[in-house]
Structures are given as C-alpha cells and as structure tokens.
Design goal:
Order of helices and strands: HEEEEEEEEHHHHHEE
Mean pLDDT: 94
Number of strands: 10
Oligomer: single chain
Low-confidence stretches: none
Strand content: 15-25%
Length: 271
C-alpha cells in the first residue's frame, strides 16, 4: 500500500509539470471506491493552480474546486505529455494542456473525488480527523505525547490509526519504532516523555529518509514519472523476519497486529 512517503514522492514528481495546465478532457473507467462527485464535463476548462497533500490524499487545487486523489492499496499515478491507450486497470484520466494524469489501480480501492472546497462536507469527512503532518511544524512532541496518553492500545496500532500523527503506515511504523528502541506491542499511554520524544524524532527522520529515497517499491510502486523507490533496500527490520538485526545480530521477529505484519528486534526494542 502506498504510504505517506510514496504519496509525497508522487506529488513532487508531477506537481510543477501540471501547474497552470487547463483541463481538456476527463475519462472515467471502472467505478472506484467513491463516485467522482460531479459530472466529468464540469471539470473542463478548469486550471490547475497547485498540487498539495494531506496525509495520503493528493489535493489538485483548481481555480475553482479541488480534486482529491487517493491511491488506495495498489494505485499509482502517471503524468506525461502522451500516454498509451488506457488499459483495464486505468480508471481515471485527466487530460490537460500540459499532459495526461492517469490513475492506475488494479484493486480499485483508490478514489478521485471532486469538492467545491476543502470546507465541503465530503472533504471534511475524508480529511477532518487526520492528525498532524509528520513533516510539518504542527507535529510537535508535547501534542504527540498528549495524544499517545489517550490510548491504552499498542503503540504500533496507534501510529497506524492516523490521529496522533498522519501517514505513518505499516513499513514506516515498524522502522520508526526500531529507531526509537520501542517494542511495537507496548501501550501508547505507557510511553514516557523521553520515549515519546525519541519516537517523534524517529518518525520525522524515517519519513524524511524515505521521501529522499523515492519511497519504497515492494511490488510495483513508482512515481508519476515512472521512477521506483529505494527505501526498502535499507530497512532495519521491515521485511527481515528471521534475519540478524543490523545492530545486535538477534533474529528479527514477525508478529501480526490487527492483521498487519509487524517486524521488530526483541533485544533492541524495549517493552
């Protein structure tokens, strides 16, 4: 599943190229998770002002209205002056004067939703409960620890929920907890301020590294320009079950938490 670094890498790979482009045509394929929210013809003539991001949502800001895009579990975007004819898993094309933006999504858990503004009830429903951005100034230690104190559940599950901090998905939660030396099963409410501060710093560091390396390509992720990511080549625990820890040589362990795979080192990460 594309996580925050992959979505941010995608945004950066086409944001400047599509800026100030005018929409010429819209093509819809098979239905996605939610309806578009307008007739496609309504988007014709709109000009793309900017491409932002909130959590795992990309925000195409038009001169009038906003298009929210979510990559779901298997989606990816492509942007190019010319693209081949759409295939069976290509479900949305936004044809502009600068090129075509295409959503490819084999499992169709992604979404493309138009709203008049971010104050629209649909936008508020999708974005309103998201936590602070981990790479922004709103993500600070005091507020982060206060959010953790509200949850007795395992810290890994709290990170994935997206209210204490948004966008820390499965790969980066495992990696951040390793960097902070925290066992993924420990109750979030039990973390002291020093431990919460270490986790806060680890989240910022890990996500920043992931963005710099183009995200993680575990199956078929690539940016809108077709570039694969390389963060998966330097993970400390994720995907390394049974292999020696890079720090202490103890075997990396694998457990299931909420039907998601969690990787950790029982020696380096304390309960």
């Amino acid at each position: 599943m594309p996580e925050l670094p992959e979505v941010e890498v995608t945004r950066r790979s086409f944001a400047s190229a599509i800026e100030n482009a005018t929409v010429q045509a819209v093509r819809l394929g098979k239905p996605l998770r939610w309806p578009l929210g307008c007739v496609p013809e309504q988007l014709l003539g709109r000009r793309v002002r900017s491409v932002g991001r909130r959590g795992k949502y990309l925000l195409l800001q038009f001169d009038q209205g906003v298009l929210l895009l979510h990559l779901g579990m298997s989606g990816s975007l492509r942007f190019a002056p010319v693209l081949p004819a759409p295939g069976g898993h290509d479900h949305f094309d936004l044809v502009t004067t600068h090129g075509t933006l295409r959503l490819h999504d084999p499992r169709r858990f992604g979404a493309v939703v138009y709203v008049d503004s971010l104050a629209d009830p649909v936008a508020l429903k999708l974005l309103g409960r998201l936590g602070p951005e981990p790479l922004g100034n709103a993500f600070e230690v005091t507020g982060f620890q206060a959010q953790l104190k509200r949850h007795q559940t395992a810290i890994k599950s709290v990170l994935l929920a997206g209210e204490a901090v948004v966008g820390v998905g499965n790969i980066y939660a495992s990696e951040s907890l390793f960097q902070a030396g925290i066992r993924p099963t420990v109750s979030a409410a039990r973390l002291s301020r020093p431990r919460a501060a270490r986790l806060h710093a680890a989240i910022v560091k890990v996500l920043g590294q992931a963005v710099a390396l183009g995200g993680s390509t575990l199956r078929d992720f690539s940016s809108a320009s077709g570039q694969a990511g390389y963060f998966q080549l330097q993970t400390m625990v994720y995907g390394r079950a049974g292999l020696p820890c890079h720090v202490c040589a103890s075997p990396v362990r694998l457990i299931k938490q909420g039907q998601r795979s969690t990787f950790y080192c029982a020696t380096c990460q304390k309960p």
